[in-house]
Amino acid sequence: MIQRLFILVAMLLVIAAPLLAQTPQQLTTLKAQANAIATAIKKQDFKTVIKMTNPKVVAAAGGEAKMLEQLSKGMGVMKAKGMNVSINNVVIGEPSVFIKVKKQLQCTVPDKIEIKMMGGTMSTNSTLIAISDDDGKTWNFIDAMGKNIATIKQVLPDISDKLVIAKMEQPQFVPDKL
């Protein structure tokens, strides 16, 4: 009986081990770094956003300089069209359980972005995928808004199928009060 119980516990540990990979320090570090990228997004500090974006995603976008150009150009086009857009707030939610894939830690982090635009404020929920290659000391991020795991696997083939990306919701618009 004890031998069977031991075997059962051992099997459960082997199955659950990839989901028991987080420590309080790793979680604290992840939250701090997720908040750092949120602050960079809010300030439109695209250089910092790019440095904190997964390197394979940056490479797929043509490299740091090309990605910076695209982000800056996109904001410039909106301003040129009279669309005075600013990011009011980015709120980071609680990360999911870490999943260990090979030597990586992976998880999802919900976020909510509020964008001030002509006539009101739009808010939308999204999901960041966080990846650490150094056991949770540093994290890089991928904005998964409107994407699914299969799409992300085209750039990051080792991304876990166990990650849950929240379904994209319709953005909410609140008109300015007159």
From TrEMBL:
<protein>
    <recommendedName>
        <fullName>DUF4252 domain-containing protein</fullName>
    </recommendedName>
</protein>
<keyword id="KW-0732">Signal</keyword>
<feature type="signal peptide">
    <location>
        <begin position="1"/>
        <end position="21"/>
    </location>
</feature>
